Amino acid sequence: MGLTKSVLKRPVTVVMVILCLIVFGLQSVLGAKLELMPTMEMPVLIVYSVYPGASPEDVNDLVSTKIEKEIGSLSGVDTIQSRSMENVSLVIIQYDYGKDIDEAYDDLKKKMDALEGDLPDDCNAPVIMEMNIDEMDTVSLSVNNKAQSDLYNYVNNKIVPEFEKITTVTDVSISGGQKEYIQVQLIPEKLEQYHLNLSSVATAIGSADFTYPAGDTIVGGQKLSVSAGTQYDTEELLKSIPLNLGNGNVIYLSDVANVQMAKEDASSIARYNGEDTISIGIKKQQSASAVDVSKAVKKTIKNLTDADENLEIITVSDTSDEINSSLKSVMQTMVMAVVVSMLIIFLFFGEIKASLIVGTSIPISILAALILIQVMGFSLNVVTLSSLVLGVGMMVDNSIVVLESCFRSTKGKGIVGYREAALEGSGIVLQSIIGSTVTTCVVFLPLALLQGLTGQMFKPLGFTIIFCMVASLISAMTIVPLCYCFYRPQEKEESPVGALIRAMQNGYRSIMKVLLKKKKTVLFTSVALLVAAFWMASQLRMELMVSDDTGEISVSIETRPGLTLEEEDRIYEQVEKIVTADEDLDSYMLTSGGSGMSAMTSSGATLTAYLKDDRKRETNEVIKEWKPLLNQIAGANISMDIASSSTMTSSTSGIEYILQGTQYDELKSASDQITKELLARPEVSKVHSTLENAAPVVKLNIDAVKANAENITPLQIAGTVSSMLGGKEATTLNVDGDDVSVMVEYPEDEYDTIDKLKGIVLTGNAGGSVALADVADIVFQDSPNTITRKDKQYQVTITGDVPTDDARQIDAIENKLYNEVVSKHLTSTITRGLNSQDESMKEEFGNLGTAIITAIFLIFVVMAAQFESPKFSLMVMTTIPFSLIGSFGLLYLADCPISMVSLLGFLMLVGTVVNNGILYVDTVNQYRIEMDRDTALIEAGATRLRPILMTTLTTIVSMIPMALAYGDSGKSMQGLALVDVGGLVASTVLALLMLPIYYEVMSPKKKPEPHYD
Length: 1013
Hints:
This protein is of the alpha+beta class and 1013 residues long.
C-alpha cells in the first residue's frame, strides 16, 4: 500500500524511471551476446596421441593404458575413457563439475610431460585439448581455386592460417585433396650395389640441408651475426646431394634414387554437391559467440576472395543463421503473447483502456528483466527468450488481479474515486499476489543449486522468470494503479464475454451445490483420473533433449574394415545417389578423414544433407524414407540423425547394448557370440560390434634371443621395418614459402607380399646382415577397428537395426532380445553398461527430480507462512498432483517424450498451479467472516471465476505457439509448454470444482469464522 500511495503522489518520478528502463533495456538487448543455447562448459580434456603404423591393440597396450594409469592419480577426475584406433590414441578425461579446467590442464600437462619418455620412440608427444560441447562446426566451408595445381597445400598453408588468426576459433580442420611432397624413391638394386640403405640416405639428406650459427663478427664497426649452412630448396638441387660411400668414393642422390614431386595417397575425401573440393570446418571456443565468430569468418572470406579472383569459398553451413532464425521466431512468439493477452483482457472487460494498462506494464517488466539478465552475464538465447515468453503469461496474472480488483473497488465511487479505488483495489489483493509471486519464484531457487548440464542450461531460465515475476509484482503495484488513474477506464456493463461469464458463474453455483453433496464421487473421480494420468506417463518415451526440425540430416557411414579408400568411396557414391534423388534436398557435403579434430575418427564418412526451407516434409519424415534405402547398401553400417549443434540431443533407430569387463579376450569372445546369435534373430538386422574383427593385422613376433645373437635390438628391427614400409621423412624444405616434406621411400611394390616382407635385410650393430624371417615370425592376427575402455574396463557396443521407428516397439524388441540372448552371456566379470546419453539422462533427471521435490517443500513452507496454517497450505497443494492429469494427458496426445525440458515444465508447474488455489482459499477465508462455509465456498468460486479464467487463459494462450512447436526452435521447448498448458487446464478445473470439496473435508466447521483485527 505504501509503495502504491507513493507512486500515485509522484507520477513524474515514475515516468522518469520508466524512461530509464527503456533506455537501459534497449542497451542490454543491443549489447547482449546471441547464442542458440546458454553457454555450457564441460570440464573435459582430451589427450590425443599419434603412433604411426601401430595396430589398435598396440596403441591400446603401449599408449592408451599407460596414459590412463598416469591420469588415475589426478584429483577431481570423474571418468576416464579411451579409444584406441589404428595409429591414434584418444583419452577423454571428464572432471567433476566445478573443477578449475585451467588447473586441471596444468596438472595433466605435467603428467604427460613425465610420461613422454615411457611411450614408444615413434609415438608423437601427446597433445592436450579442451573438449568443445558444440560438436558441429560453427562454420563449414567449401574451397576451390582453379589456378592452383596443388590445392591442398594452398589451402593448408594460405587459407587455414587466416582463419586460425581469429582469436575465438579453437580448431580449423580440412578434408579432401592430396598433399604434395618431394619423393625420393629409392632404386633397390642401386642401393645394394653401393651398400647403402634407406636410413643412411635419409640421414645424408637431413645433414645436407642445414643452418648453423657460427658466432659474431665486427665489420666496419658493426656487430654482425654469422650463419653457416647449405640449402637445397629445389628438386634439382636435392639430386646433387653427395653420398659418401666410406671408401673415399662419392656418388650423388640421383645415382640411387628418383627425385620428383608427388602426391600422397588420398587419405580423405570431400565433395560438395558431387564436386571434389577442400572442406574447411571451423569450431569456436566454448565461451565464444557463434554469431561473432561467423562475422569474423565472413570478413576473412571477403579479404581472401578480394585478394584472389580465382578463389571460390562457399559457406556450406553457418550456425549463426540457425541462431538468428530461432531467436527471431521466439521474439515473434513473445510479441504474439503480449498482443493476445491484451485481446483477452479486452474481451473480459470490454474496455480498450484496460488492455492498454496491461499492455503498458508488460513491456516495462520485460525491459527490467532484460537489464537484470545482462547484469547476471546471461546471453540472449532460445532458453532465456523462451522464459520471457513464459513470463509474459505469468506477468499478466498480477496485473489482471490488481486491475480486476480496482474495477470492483470503483463501483459506487464514481469517476472522482479512481485514486481511492486504485489504492483500495491493490491493497485488497496485495497479500494474494505477493503469495502467488513468491510461490512461483521459490520453485526456481533449487535450479541455482543444480550442478551438471542441467544447472548450466536452465539456471538462466530460472533467474529470468524470477526477474520477470519480481518486475511484474512491482509493476502491478505501481504501473497498473498509476495507469488506472491516468486512463480512467470504465468497465462496460456488457463486455464481449460478459454474458458468458455470468452464465458460467450461475452454472458454477448450480454445479457446486450438487458436488458438495457428492464428495465421495468427486474424490473417487479425481483419483481415477490421476491413475489414468500415471498410466499415460508410463507409455511415454524418455529422451535427454528433443531435437529441433533443423532441416539438416547427418548421415554417418561406417564402412567394413579393411577396405581401401577407393572401395569406401564407391559406397559413399551409392549413398550420394540415394540422397540426391530426394526432391527436398537443397545441398550436401560429404567428408571422410581429414586433419585436426576430423582425424580423430575411425574409418567411414559423414554426409550432411541440407533440406530446402520450403520442403514438403519434416526432417524426421525424410529420415524414415531414406532409412530402408540406405540399409540396402552392402558393406556399410549407416545411421542417421537430425543434425544439431547440441550434444544433448540424440535419437536412435535401433537396438544397442553396452557390455564391459576387465578381460579383453573374454569380453571379445562374448560380444562375438552375442553378435552371431542376434544375426540369427528375425527381429533385428545389420548387427555390428565395436570389437568385431577388422582387416587382419600382420604381426611381427620378434625373437629377442635371436635378435641379440645378430647384435640387433627388437626396437631397431621394428624401426627398420616401419621405415621400409612407410618411408621416412628426411627433412622439410621451404619451397616458394611453403613447407614441403622430403620423404625417402621404396617403390610401392617392393614389399607387397609376405615373402618379400620376410626377405627384408636388417643390418646389425656390428655390420652384419640378417633376413627378417630369421629373427621374427610373421603371422596374421585379427584386430578390431577400435578398442574402447572406460574407467579401466574394456567396453563393447553391439548395435542392430529393427524394422520400426516407433520408440516403444524398439524398446520392447531391445528388452526381449536382452532377456533371451544377451543376459545369458553376462558373468561376474562381464556386466551391462550405460552409454553416455543414458548416463547423462540418469544424472540430469535425478537432479531435476530433486529440484522438483525441493520446490514442493518450499511452496508448502511459503503458503503455510502466508495462511499461518499448514492445513490450508496442504489444501492448496492438492492442485499439484492432480495437475498431472492434464500434463501427462497432453504429452501423451502429442506423442512428446519426457525430457529435461518437460521435467523443467513440471518444476514450473509446481509454482504456477497453486496460484489459483491461493486466490480461491484466500477469498473463502475472507468470505467466511460473514458467511457460512458452504455459501463462502460457492461464492468465492463464482467471484474468482473471472480473474482465474483471465489469468489462466493469458498464461495458456501465451504458451500455445510453443506448445505447437512454432518456429525453428519450437521442438526443443515444446515439452515444457505442453506440461504447463495441460497442467494449468487441469488445475483450473480442480481449483474451481474439486478444491471446495477438499476444503470442506479438511475444514468441517460450517459456521462463519471469527475475525480478529
